[in-house]
Amino acid sequence: MIGSMTTHLIARLAAFAVFAALPACSAPPAQQSGDPAAEGNPTEGLAIETATAREVGNVPLGSVPGTISLPPEARVAVTAPFAGAVVRVYVIEGQQVARGEALGLVRATDPVQISGDLARARSAASLTEARAKRLSQLAEEGIIAEARADEARAEFEQARASVAQFERLAALGQVGADGTMTLRAPIAGRVAHVGIETGGGVDTLTAPFVVEGTGAYQIELQLPERLAQSVRPGMAVQLALGGDVERPVGGQIIAVAPSIDPATRSVMARASIGAAPGVIAGRNVTVTILGQGRGIAVPENAVTRIGDKDHVFVRKGKDWEKRPVTIAARGGGLAVISAGLTAGEVVAASSVAELKAMNAQ
């Protein structure tokens, strides 16, 4: 009995020894959930554009609506010096013209009469001049009284004045021998109004042409009440026109109204800008007003709202760090940061929503 049990125990020990001597099966090691080395960097699949934070001056105070207009001195009326009939019209509304370019041809009767008056005045001046010289010589010789020579000289001065008057009238409209006069553009610009047609009449009281200068423009601005105390003449402005115009157009505040409109709770202001592609009178635009402080600028789309604070994502090696920031101003596609970021740091300028969602997990 005891021998049989001993034999059975030895057999079991031998079998266990053989099993232990066998090579271990190669099974894949279990991965722990949440191990970054196992899962990889979750942002590697995102095509994240970056932007470098930079220090800027003229911090934007805000963006306001505006309307492009012409300055008062930019519109010039072209009038006819004499009434007459329109022979030809050379331009149409909207046409660009150079200074001195012909706008229309008018024939009038007055210039013909003025030409005759001028010829008679010149003849009379020649006669009175010769008489004044002759009487002056006789007065010097004592043949006649000096008073008669003085009268002759006075008559000559009157004749000279008449000649000068008729010469000015004749030159006023550059009148030709047939009484035609050419109306010309006094400035370079755009023909804003044509009020005559061939065969019609023209008088001296209405303007047959109006030319608008295109060298400078103004913008009428509506400042909200919160900006009324901050905006002053001399501050710089920028307006982005979009389309094919990539660079913003710059200008300057020239006037700010002293009171707030009680109906709109806004303050009217005016800025001057130069001519540029896309700058057209009557166009509505958004204008960014630039202050005189300094800050850190990043693309506006790099800033996102998380909770009740603005944040940016700052690159730290291969990772992105969520960073709360204080926004001083927005405008012109930029956000100016007054606290939370330093110049030279790199922020995410795209895929911000994805980074925000990953950070919330």
Provide structural commentary:
The protein is of the alpha+beta class and 361 residues long. Among the domains are: 44-59 and 293-361, conserved putative lor/sdh protein from methanococcus maripaludis s2 fold; 110-177, Orthogonal Bundle (Helix Hairpins), CATH 1.10.287. It has five helices and 22 strands. It has helices at 2-21, 36-39, 110-141, 146-172, 352-360; strands at 50-52, 54-57, 60-69, 75-78, 84-89, 96-97, 102-107, 180-184, 189-194, 201-202, 209-213, 216-224, 236-239, 249-256, 266-274, 284-290, 294-299, 304-306, 309-316, 319-331, 334-339, 346-348. A hairpin with a 2-residue loop joins β20 (319-331) and β21. α3 (110-141) packs antiparallel against α4. The protein starts with a helix and ends with a helix. 25% of the residues are buried.
What is the CATH first-level class name of the domain at 44-59 and 293-361? Mainly Beta
| Overall pLDDT | 81
What's the shape?
elongated
What is the CATH topology of the domain at 44-59 and 293-361? conserved putative lor/sdh protein from methanococcus maripaludis s2 fold
Percentage of residues assigned to helices: 25-40%
Strands ordered across the widest β-sheet: 2-17-21-20-19-18
Percent of residues in beta strands: 35-45%
Show unreliable segments. Answer: 1-38
Roughly how many Å is the radius of gyration?
A: 44 Å
Number of helices: 5
Distance between the termini: 70 Å
Structural class: alpha+beta
Strand tally is 22
The CATH architecture of the domain at 44-59 and 293-361 would be Beta Barrel
